[in-house]
Specification:
The chain contains 9 helices and 2 strands. By secondary structure, it is mainly alpha-helical. The protein has a two-stranded antiparallel ribbon. A hairpin with a 2-residue loop joins strand 1 and strand 2.
């Protein structure tokens, strides 16, 4: 998804890519409502979802002399769907398998696999291979990796949170909405 986001920024711009990324939240919200018994749709959530869909369409739709340009419309839509599906997969893993006790292991394994995949793909990208040996790459990569690990760790922690006033788990759709 990071590579696709980079391509989208180059072809359609930061604002369009950013809207597609942010509005993708409706996919895991709908997924969460579907799998969690205590999570429901209400008029405010429905209104927000409809507005998000309209926003993604309007920001992606850029007619060029009466024709829809597939490359500028498809990239934001792919990002919208891709990030939404990834967030839904995280929610599914949390819902079915990842308790607070397993959260550090899950997050560590997830980023370990991502790092290993990046290293295995390194020979196929000459520019990345050149940068790989630079100390600056390792320093910034470590900072980015720790930030992403923390983000995943605390996000799953929020999804696992039990509201002490009700004794129920916080609605996942609310957590996604504030992500």
């Amino acid at each position: 998804m990071f590579r696709l986001i980079g391509q989208s920024v180059l072809k359609v711009g930061v604002s369009t890519t950013s809207v597609a990324t942010k509005m993708s939240v409706i996919i895991p919200i709908l997924f969460t409502v579907a799998i969690e018994a205590n999570d429901t749709l209400n008029p405010i959530k429905i209104f927000g979802i409809v507005l998000a869909l309209i926003a993604v369409f309007l920001i992606s739709y850029k007619p060029d002399k009466g024709h829809i340009q597939l490359s500028t419309t498809l990239l934001p839509i792919l990002i919208f769907v891709g990030i939404g599906v990834l967030d839904s997969l995280v929610k599914y893993a949390q819902f079915r398998y990842v308790s607070n006790d397993l959260n550090p292991i899950f997050s560590g394994v997830t980023f370990g696999i991502a790092g290993l995949t990046g290293i295995l793909l390194l020979p196929f990208n000459r520019n990345a291979a050149k940068e790989f040996i630079r100390i600056k790459t390792w320093i910034f990569g470590t900072i980015l990796g720790l930030s992403n690990f923390g983000s995943m760790y605390f996000f799953i922690g929020a999804l696992n949170h039990i509201d002490i006033s009700t004794g129920k788990q916080t609605q996942g759709s609310v957590i996604f909405w504030h992500k």
